[in-house]
Design a protein that fits this description.
Blueprint (H helix, E strand, L loop, with lengths): L1 H96 L4 H15 L4 E8 L2 E8 L4 H8 L11 H8 L3 E3 L6 H4 L3 H8 L5 E9 L2 E10 L7 H9 L1
Helix pairs in contact: 1-2
């Protein structure tokens, strides 16, 4: 009887022992699962942080590019302003040092206006009665064109020619393509010689005023079809 009880107790002890072992193993598994979950959470946080830092770096790079462009534009504006101021100073210097030499003043003024407006050449026309005479011509123009209009020739253009229209309206007028204008197509001598002999394609005329009265016009030309921009028109008006 005692032996039987001992066998039962021993069997029960083994059973309990095994259950306890299983329980301890289960505990280890739970702890392992919890650690793994924490590691995944940390990885997600790190990935989110890296993503946020990359986005912030991208924003900073865009802002830097924008500031660089703004700085470049500011430098260009400063360079343009300095160039304009230098050109104006040179013209005023010539006027003050040679007040009676109008031809010299006209030539330097025309040269600076042509240069700043990125034109090929130009002509300063002054009114003479019902016509115009070329007071100054600038640029490497063909000899035939220069001789025709510099030899004190009085030019009586059609009222619809760009020069006459600009002076009459007292405002700048440009032609994107001289060969497409009605006056050229009708054979007016001024646009025909300008286009066919001098090779002028785009031109702009700015009226010259004295006491708010038009006394002539500055015409600047390009050998290619390339209209003048607003800044260049403004520069022409200043001269």
């Amino acid at each position: 009887m005692a032996k039987a009880v001992w066998v039962v107790r021993r069997a029960a002890g083994v059973t309990l022992s095994r259950k306890g072992a299983k329980s301890r193993t289960g505990g280890r598994k739970l702890r392992s699962t919890g650690t793994k979950s924490k590691g995944v959470a940390r990885s997600d946080e790190q990935a989110a942080l890296v993503k946020k830092l990359k986005a912030h770096a991208g924003d900073l790079e865009k802002k830097l590019e924008a500031r660089t462009r703004e700085l470049g534009e500011a430098r260009n504006h400063l360079a343009e302003a300095l160039e304009q101021q230098t050109a104006t100073s040179e013209v005023l210097k010539v006027i003050s040092s040679s007040p009676g030499e109008l031809n010299l003043v006209f030539n330097i003024m025309l040269a600076k206006a042509t240069e700043l407006c990125e034109a090929s050449y130009g002509t300063l026309w002054l009114r003479d009665g019902d016509g115009y005479r070329a007071a100054a011509i600038h640029g490497d123009l063909p000899t035939l064109f220069v001789e025709q209009w510099r030899s004190n020739t009085l030019c009586r253009p059609d009222p619809e020619v760009t020069l006459a229209r600009s002076v009459r309206a007292r405002k700048p007028i440009q032609e994107a393509d001289l060969r497409a204008t009605p006056r050229y197509l009708k054979g007016d001598p001024l646009p025909v010689t300008a286009a066919d002999i001098a090779g002028i394609r785009t031109l702009m005329v700015v009226p010259v005023l004295k006491d708010n009265e038009p006394i002539g016009g500055i015409a600047i030309y390009r050998k290619e079809v390339r209209p003048f921009g607003e800044k260049q028109i403004e520069l022409g008006q200043r001269f």
